[in-house]
Amino acid sequence: MKNFEQWNGFKGNRWKEKIDVRNFIGMNYTPYDGDASFLEGPTEATNKLWGKLQALQKEERAKGGVLDMETEVVTSLTAYGPGYIDDSMKDMEQVVGLHDFDPPQQNEGVTEEEQVETMFNAPVFSTVKELARWAYDNGCWSTFRKNYGLWKDIQNESKGGTENA
After folding, report:
1. Spatial distance between the Cα atoms of 150 and 72, rounded to a whole number of angstroms
2. Cα(62)–Cα(107) distance, rounded to whole angstroms?
3. Cα atoms in the 13 Å half-sphere on the side-chain side of 125
4. Residues 1/17, Cβ–Cβ less than 8 Å
5. How many Cβ atoms from other residues are within 10 Å of residue 135's Cβ?
6. Per-residue pLDDT tens for 137-161?
7. Taking CA 114 as the corner, what is the angle to CA 154 and CA 68, rounded to the nearest 5 degrees?
8. For residue 123, how far is the Cα from the chain centroid?
9. Under 8 Å between Cβ of 142 and 60
10. Which end of the chain has the lower number of beta carbons within 10 A, N or C?
11. Contact at 8 Å (CB) between 142 and 66?
């Protein structure tokens, strides 16, 4: 059994032999019975960033649920650099890692009902990636994203099979 110096003070052995988060937490969790007096309020930077994020969330809802999507870059752990809530406020951010997309114009003014109708009239594509690109280009990304499995199944049925698109 491995025993790293960083593990000193932690109880239990099973989590040392194999990945067992439940065992580790069960052996090492200590409930806190105090009050919240040790907590600090939000900083000025947090309040500014939260205000910007709330505005973006409102815009996202108004556009049917998606601000933007990347369709050209194959995703991986290193495919993208850091993302920020707002580039002009990035020095305020303590945690970095949001996707850095500009808000799209494609879904403006397109209701979910219109998106569903458009999606039901979608041509048959060879791959789900092609369907996703078509949905995005035709202002239906939010409906496609919410109902991915449905649209994938419809495409498969239209092709006369049940294979992965």
Report:
1. 24
2. 9
3. 18
4. yes
5. 25
6. 777 777 777 776 777 777 777 766 5
7. 85
8. 28
9. no
10. N
11. yes
DSSP 43-84: -HHHHHHHHHHHHHHHHHHHTTS-S----SSPP-TTSS----
**Amino acid letter, residue 71:** T
Which residues of the chain, if any, have pLDDT below 50?
99-106, 162-165
Q: Which two tokens stand for residue 71?
A: 């369709």
Q: What is the DSSP code (8-state) at residue 6?
A: G
Tens digits of per-residue pLDDT, 77-100? 677 677 777 888 888 877 655 544
The CA distance from 30 to 36, in Å, is 16
In degrees to the nearest 10, what's the CA dihedral of 84, 90, 95, 100? 10
Task: Using the CB atoms, write b or e for 57-89: b if 16+ within 10 Å.
Answer: eeebeebbebbbbeeeeeeeeeeeeeebbeeee
